[in-house]
Q: What sequence folds into this?
């Protein structure tokens, strides 16, 4: 299986290294697409037979079986449909892109025509199989996510351009956002894709609630997921290590993508 990477930042590089080290048997890193080469990408190219391109149009002309989007929601929203229309499977990491008007429906229709698949990994959170099952027959009632991060992890989020919160001078835990998943992804496009993924598995982005807490004492990123439905209740807590090279993303997000790729063409799926 020939794999192309759309975006080779922190998560993309981790995926590329996994492919080069044969963590995903039968999958080969064939292409890397990013705006420009850097030293890290150069080293990955030397360790593999992958070709580098600096535009998605060139990537789509290549003979690839699957493209992994590891860029950001804006890039994902712009090019996801083109990938599927080209008949190439898509592993979509920036699930926030699916909140763009009509994109999810357009992807579904294109997928039916071309037989290409769109797969969204669970990312840095768990419990999605419970949520999917609980939605059957309208049995899911409440889903709330509380995410606690170090302020450094939130720097650069568009949300802070319109308020007076001084992230780097916080002295204690501070609730910086409370609202729906659809509102959260607009203000924190690089930080809360998990909220969108959870919402798409369950109640939808308007009814899924999220709280974001900045904690200057946090050494780990904490996600607390509370679910209530006809099945009963679920409370799931994860404390994730941040990625060594990017405090805005969890290491588990990279591992989730690698796991999804490893199982991409398996005929026996566990926990699906």
A:
């Amino acid at each position: 299986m020939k794999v192309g990477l759309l975006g080779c930042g922190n998560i993309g590089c981790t995926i590329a290294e996994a492919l080069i080290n044969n963590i995903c048997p039968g999958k080969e890193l064939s292409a890397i697409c990013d705006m420009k080469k850097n030293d890290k990408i150069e080293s990955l190219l030397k360790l593999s037979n992958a070709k580098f391109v600096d535009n998605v149009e060139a990537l789509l002309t290549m003979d690839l079986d699957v493209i992994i989007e590891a860029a950001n929601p804006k890039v994902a929203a712009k090019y996801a449909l083109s990938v599927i229309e080209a008949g190439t499977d898509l592993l979509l990491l920036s699930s926030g892109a699916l909140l763009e008007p009509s994109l999810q429906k357009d992807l579904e229709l294109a997928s039916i025509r071309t037989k290409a698949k769109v797969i969204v990994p669970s990312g840095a959170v768990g419990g999605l199989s419970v949520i999917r099952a609980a939605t059957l027959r309208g049995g899911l009632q409440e889903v709330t996510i509380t995410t606690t991060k170090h302020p450094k992890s939130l720097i650069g989020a568009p949300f802070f351009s319109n308020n007076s919160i001084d992230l780097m001078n916080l002295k204690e835990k501070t609730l910086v956002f409370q609202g729906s998943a659809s509102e959260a992804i607009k203000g924190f496009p690089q930080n809360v894709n998990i909220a969108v993924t959870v919402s798409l598995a369950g109640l939808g982005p308007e009814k899924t609630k999220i709280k974001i807490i900045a904690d200057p004492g946090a050494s780990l990123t904490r996600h607390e997921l509370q679910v209530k439905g006809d099945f009963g209740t679920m409370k799931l807590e994860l404390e994730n290590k941040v990625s060594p090279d990017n405090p805005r993303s969890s290491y588990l997000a990279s591992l989730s993508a690698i796991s999804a790729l490893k199982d991409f063409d398996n005929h026996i799926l566990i926990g699906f």
The mean pLDDT is 94. The first helix runs from residue 10 to 20.
